[in-house]
Amino acid sequence: MFQPTVYKVTLLSLITITLSPLTSIASDSTGEVQANKQITQPMMARPEKQAPVYDLPEPLTLKSVLALPESVSPQVVASQARQAQAQAEYDLQDATDAVELNALGRIGWREYADHIEDNHLLALHVGKKLYDFGQTQALIDAQEKVSAAQTELYEDQVLQFKIQLMQSFFNVILADFQYRIENEAMAVAYVALDKAKDRYELNRISDVDYLKLQADYEKILVKRSRAEYEQRRTRAALANLIGQPHRLPDKLLFPRLESVEKRTLQELEAYQEQALASNYELKSLLLKQQAAQYRLEGESATDKPTFRVDAWGGKLSTYEYQREGRWRFDLSMDYPLYDGGVRSAKMSRARAGVQEIEAQITALEQRLRDQVADLYFKLKLSDAEKKQNKVFGDYADLYLDYSRALYENESTTDLGDSMVRLSEANFQVISQQFKQALYWAQLDYLTGTSIQLSATP
Fold it and tell me: What's the Cα-to-Cα distance from 69 to each of 54, 176, 242, 264, rounded to whole Å?
């Protein structure tokens, strides 16, 4: 007779497999999600930059993760640096219109009338551009708007980071729940395979039927391994996101999201209007549009004259009483007559820049309307999914009691499948809660409001 491969698993090992998952989900009263501690000793080929390590509670809570400083995110830090650069550029541009005060000094000689004579200088200079028909002011206003635009982008990046933290935290908990489901399914499949092995040895089932059960068991075993790896991957992703890649979180407290449950939807048009009025990215583009318009105005004024005043006082020459004197005052004008098409080219470039930003604004407005509508209807559907999950959970719980009663009466039962079904029902409830919280957070982000999430603990 054909002898297929049979995996030897003792009853003790089955109990170990079933009762020793990487994480155990605590009851609702404690709200804990636990996992075996993962300790890594990474091999570093070269010294790494030491990032600040922040004390986090054990077990880890969503509130503590969201309270981390914004400097944890390199994207937020980079946005903050761009904001500082834009402010520095504004200060630099503003300084070009300030009063100039400088000291001039020279020790020199020159040839004059066939002999060498001294040509020394020691004087104080004061200068100021008086009027240039708005050229300088336009550049200052443009850079001010650019700086304000970077501030809006910084706030945008902060909200994105908060949402990433929420998503990563939820992923860890969902991975733990998924592992629990796959672990229970594997235990059920193993029991079925073990019973089939006995029947197979008694020639009560065929080779084909037994091999099918064995193949099904291997598929479930692969799914369990995938869920186990997902536990590790999601923890590594969370640790990396919070700037502590070598300190994988062990236990996570399940967050209670009462504030999300209490929120109600307004009309879709109200959210779309709020997004078009308050979205940080859109406000940044509108400010950049104003900056581009100021640049265009500045370039259009470059064909106008520039007036400035300069004064010098001191020892203007070695021969101050004969030639240069001790002071000098100039009121000068610089009127461009011909530049070979430079002004026209710069104006064309500035005008194209305005048109490009206007197109970007229109595209972003369209995208915001679509994204807000998508989230709005997902939240609408979320309420229906909540009712569906509740009914399915009640059914799974009742069916488990029914299967347990059959088992106690030594009748044919699918008690193991009932336990898996109940775990799947719990997973769907948790997944729906997390998706709803993320949908609300993303809607807050699109509408330019702070994320309204009050998670306890």
Answer: 9, 27, 9, 30
